[in-house]
């Protein structure tokens, strides 16, 4: 019969590997946790890096759209200046309503005239220039190849005049730009040109006016032509 001492010694011998097993289990658990944390951290870093590069690509691509907007702002300024000059010549002979109507008519006529010149070959006016080339002429060389017209939009690349409603619109401009890192941004948009809002002054002369009184009613605020050109139906794909 086995003594109590022998039983204890045998029990100790049977438990000699349990500590090693416990250490292996703990190490395995820690390794799994560390691997999971590294994977999650790596995924978050990759996602944030991709998001940052996508935004950089977008902002770089948006430069081309801003160049078109700036060019249209120049067109708006030139048309407004010509219309304002025309109205100023006959300023005293017209009331405010007539002045505005004349300004609106002259503005859209000049805007259309200047745009039509872009659609004709300067060396042979009978040769039309494709709409896409007209739009591409508004951007710098690095972005020309990225500009196209949306095939789903009727009359894309044509400047449509809506004089009675007080606006013009350039529809269906598409930008597909791929940066140096291979990220592609696709944007489609229209450009809405609103007629500048000008103060044409009071209709009736004031008999009680003095140099020190009422001057503020005759002051005309400056007009920011950039506010007259805005994006419309802007979509990032």
In short:
The protein has five helices and five strands, in the order αααααβββββ.
List the helices and strands and how they pair.
Layout: H1 4-14, H2 18-89, H3 96-118, H4 131-136, H5 141-144, E1 147-149, E2 159-162, E3 167-178, E4 184-194, E5 229-236
Antiparallel strand pairs: 1-3, 2-3, 3-4, 4-5
Helix pairs in contact: 2-3
Provide an overview of this structure.
The structure is a single chain. This protein is of the alpha+beta class and 237 residues long. The protein has 5 helices and 5 strands. Strands 1, 2, 3, 4 and 5 form a 5-stranded antiparallel beta sheet that branches. Helix 2 packs across helix 3. About 8% of the residues have low confidence.
Oligomer: single chain
The largest pleated sheet is described as:
5 strands, antiparallel
**Computed structural class:** alpha+beta
β-sheet strand percentage: 15-25%
Report the total helices: 5
Name the average pLDDT: 78
Low-confidence parts, pLDDT < 50 over ≥5 residues?
Answer: 202-221
Q: What is the gyration radius calculated from CA atoms?
A: 36 Å
Count of extended strands: 5
Key traits:
237 residues, alpha+beta, five-stranded antiparallel β-sheet, 5 strands, elongated
